[in-house]
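Re: folding output
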Amino acid sequence: MTPPTVLSQGYANDAEDTLVTKLLNQTVYSSVEDNAEEIGNIKDIVVSSGIGISAVVVSVGGFLGVGSKDVAVDFHQLDWATRPDGSRRWVLESTAEDLRAAPAFIWSDSVENTGAPALTSAEQEAQLAPGNPNAAPVDPTLTTDAPERAAITTPIDRTGFTNLDEKGLTADQLSGIPVYGINDEQIGTIGNVVNHSDGTIDAVIVDVGGFLGLGAKPVAVGYDNLAFSTDTSGNRYLFLNTTRDQLEAQTEYNPDTYPGEGDNQRMVITP
């Protein structure tokens, strides 16, 4: 993640930055080799609040745009890879055939905008093309479990950050704060808060996992021992002494049963 911009200082891009306009129409290949398959072209970009680029829409198949199929691919599955000659290209460890077999990407907001019923969360999640973490076919006699693709995250630069006193923060101020875990990698976002009967905050609800806001798991994290920070622009952050895996393994927050089962659902963070 690029450090937050201080308006008075402007922004200076680094070698790894790129413009969205330069992503569009770029060819996606299956590898860096000369004989790599041209899988398709980047047709569009999906941007999510608090995340940035979440997915790219790859147009695969067809001829001159006719008969092609649009498929959404998790942006983290793409690799800006360096070839032996020093040039770079976008690589997706998959094949055009795999993408043609994946669900077509349909951007459907509402009946008013498209004339068709809005997609359900499950239908939108189903549009995401599955990743292929193994470039070559796997012999089923050699392994019984396909390894999950690890989430690719970039540690946040805490230069200029200061501690933030969480006392007095309202639910609206807490909502949307990005949550970082061990190694300063983003692991979720605060989606809501739970109050005690006296109005004080009992826990924050951290949405972890999922894609494009869909399928995220809400986890209650006790408000004690939380370490909030702020940057020079006033943006707020929450740092937890835990990992994404530990959060995802926690019991899911259920607003209906939490009043009686809070001790089981609430994750307690140690300083």
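--- second protein (sequence, then structure) ---
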Amino acid sequence: MDKISKLIPNTLTISRLVMTIMFNYCIFEHFTYGQGSTVVLTILFSAICLSDLFDGKLARKLGVTSVMGAKLDVFADLLYIVSSYGMLIAVKVLPAWYLAFVCIKFLEFVLTSNFIKRYDTASRHPFVFDKIGRIVSATFFLIPGVACLLSHSNVIGSSYLINILLYTTFLGGAYSSFERIRGCYMLTKLRYSKVRR
């Protein structure tokens, strides 16, 4: 039972990789050829979100958290976000600059997490999260589904709603990055002031 318990959360995360490929294929079919169902897109998007929501919670509840599981989760998230954004850019639903921003934000997150971990060795988690950054990353996760649904709907001003979401998230992400980089600077400053004493 113990070995099975360890496999359940990672299997859920790996299923997200498969669903990501299916989701991207459905986006391509739907927006390029007008084929495919909005219902299928919605189901896949919901399943991807639920798998992300529950894999970590399940690992913690079963007591089987691991560095590998945390890294697999971040990889699955990144693959979903980058590939679905890329597909939505290819079918002209999202602007290309936003994917560049997401990639820069992810790089900043990894670099600042590694930097902060040098000073906080008590945490076993390989990444360091901040409140605004969590909201921004959750929004990164939701944007592909929201963009698909709004672009397909006949809602007046749906492109404006998508742009408002993108620019709001951009501002939140920029603020989060500023705070994380400032925090790294303060840690460095504190360290050097202790060394001089």
